[in-house]
Amino acid sequence: MMRKENLRVDALLIGYETNENLGLRSVMAYLQESGYNIVLVPFFPGNDESIIEAVRAYNPRLIGFSVIFQFTLEEFGQLMQGLRANGVKAHFTAGGHFPSLRPELTMQLIPELDSVVRFEGELTLAELLEHLEQPQHWEQIQSLAYREGSEIIVTQLRPLVSDLDSLPPVYRDEPQEVGFGVKTASMLASRGCLYNCSFCSIRQFYGSVPGALRRVRSPQSVVEEMLVLFNDKGVRYFSFQDDDFAAKTKQQRQWLQSFLKGLSETGLANNIRWKISCRVDDLESEILKKMLDHGLMAVYLGVESGSETGLRTLNKKVNVDQNLKSINLLKSNNVAMAIGFMLFDPSSTTDTIHENLNFLKAVGEDGYFPINFCKMLPYAGTPIESELRDAGRLKGDVTQPDYNFLDERLDWYESLTKLIFTRRNFSPDGTIMLLQEADFRYRLAESFGFKGQTESYNKMLRYLISKSNMDTLQTLRELLYAVMSQEINYLLEEQNTIMEIAERQWRNEMEIEVELKSQFMEALPLLNNLPNPHLPQSKDSYMPFNGSGVQIPSATPKS
Ligand code: B12
Ligand code: SF4
Questions:
Q1: How far is the CA of 449 from the centre of ligand 1 (A)?
Q2: Number of domains in the chain
């Protein structure tokens, strides 16, 4: 972030920037293209002071908050309070999933907000900036919610941008590194998804507005953006954040073929690695192999459940067998992977929990990837939220929506697992993050063509991941038995057993973490000395993609 004292900018945008906030950066690029002066400031808890300082320095006409995670509503509310308390008079607006779907509630909960920009923000925010000082015009701005006295006015919806190529490439600054000096960028080739999983915000977000449920950029524009990042910023690892990097229908496969062709023609295919997130039914051997030949390195798979009942409740439209097949396909092709998995969902019973634990054992015992799990949460506007509300099972508050299970003892079980596993599963320095990081770095090194010398490190890593997976499953089983075999009234008598299970789990985690850190430290000099043989040194060795199909000589192929 550049500091220019006493500069009055048009807008200062604030949001989580863990993997580059592509939504905010797209809004920023569009506004810049429209001639506005914009600044981006990252948000994270505890950063309020530097945000206040930035606001003083830039004196923006408008501050835009990116509330893409429902659970951050309160944090953003507090930040806005702090800004107002410091005398900041700028117009406050917010965008993202929750504000879009619940604009009135958002503005009631955060009285400091002057408006909400609903759904896709590029065009709406540009129009708001243009007419910021003419509130009488605001009712003509589509997809806006704003205050008029004590009333909240919600305007007509704006159709989705029909051609994503008409938007400028997202704003970028200096890329982060993912290890061994490899620079990374987040990418987006599409917006939206054709499915309607009951727990997911995506369908509600894009489906509430006129326009196609899923829109794709042209393969040329995606490749071109990658090439610019490769040449100008030295980016070698591209992380696609598309909701579903789809490869199921004929049309989607055709898109993919053109994309892969573009990667070959530009010489990128052999010199970059990339990651996608997709559904299990997108994966099929032939197309996967083609993607791997063009630099695909990692896949995040939306598995979600190992129980047929669970998959039905989540409306995933796949079965357990398909889940297993896709995971095995990735394993047999040596692809780095992680899965999304919800051990608990509203239909959970002891039987479905057992099914899930069996599934996790089947996929996790070999230590191929660390298993992680969570409880499905009913986000605003999702089908499951309304089902739970209708059934009188919805509880919690706006930032932490929750529900009760049909069997009261499962509520106890789930609370205990939360208590025991939150650090392992979600803390930035917990076992899962450490194992994932170690696994990722190993696979990155391996994928860039450095094989053999880290074999012992790999073996140790598989052992530790398998141990963590199996310890976790044992704890989950024992806990389930301890809780479910008792009447609620007698559960307190199980306190000691439960404490023993928890303490053993935590001891095991500590042991794994200590071992991992020492192994990692030992392997690090070796891994760090990777010669990076396939990374071209000079950006001049590449020409910009011109879409004409010109073959550009590529560097050393991937081993
Ligand atoms: C990339 C990503 C992440 C990245 C981080 C992204 C970041 N910015 O830092 C990582 C991997 C870290 C992540 C983590 C999580 N994520 Co996530 N993530 C995404 C994902 C897949 C893509 C985001 C994106 O780039 N979208 C593309 C852009 C173009 O769209 P957009 O963000 O919606 O932005 C547009 C509009 O919303 C609007 N807009 C957005 N902000 C603003 C601000 C202003 C001022 C204006 C005017 C407009 C505006 O304009 C933008 C352009 O049109 C989304 C799904 C999705 N499609 O959005 C889930 C999503 C946001 N994640 C979600 C969740 C639940 C999580 C986790 C809680 C998961 C977990 N169990 O751990 C964590 C929490 C992270 C944390 N901070 O603790 C949910 C949020 C649901 C909800 N209602 O709250 C989503 C929607 C996925 C889903 N299927 O439901 N996530
Ligand atoms: S979970 Fe994935 S497949 Fe299901 S609706 Fe959401 S983005 Fe689409």
A1: 33
A2: 1
Alpha carbon of 148 to ligand 1 centroid (Å)? 30
Select from 18, 100, 38 the least CA-distant residue to 67.
100
* 166 within domain boundaries: no
Nearest CA to ligand 1 atom 74: 69
Residue that has been written with the tokens 């794709």 in this structure: 216
Residue 555 lies in a domain: no
What residues form DSSP beta bridges with 273? Answer: 237
Q: Can you give the residue range of the structural domain that contains 91?
A: 11-154
Number of residues in the chain: 559
Which tens digit of pLDDT belongs to each residue from 213-245?
999 999 999 999 999 999 999 999 999 999 999
Domain harbouring 124, CATH code: 3.40.50.280
CA end-to-end distance (rounded Å), the chain: 39
Atom 4 of ligand 2 has which residue's CA nearest to it? 197
Q: From the CA of 190, which ligand is nearest?
A: 1
Q: What would the pLDDT profile of 125-172 be if each residue is shown by its tens digit?
A: 999 999 999 999 999 999 999 999 999 999 999 999 999 999 999 999
Give the distance (Å) from ligand 2 centre to CA of residue 193: 6
**Of the residues 195, 203, 282, 339, which should be mutated to test ligand 2's pocket, given the most ligand atoms within 8 Å of the CB?**
195
- Is 533 within a domain? no
pTM beyond 0.85, yes or no: yes
pLDDT bucket at 497, cuts 50 / 70 / 90? confident
CA distance 298 to 322: 19
Binding site membership of 93 for ligand 1 (Cβ less than 6 Å): yes
CA of 302 relative to ligand 2 center, distance in Å: 8
Indicate whether 119 belongs to any domain. yes
Q: What is the DSSP string of 333-376?
A: TT-EEEEEEEEE-TT--HHHHHHHHHHHHHHHTT-SS----EE-
| For the CA of 193, the nearest atom of ligand 2 | 8
Query: Atom 32 (ligand 1): residue with closest C-alpha?
Result: 23
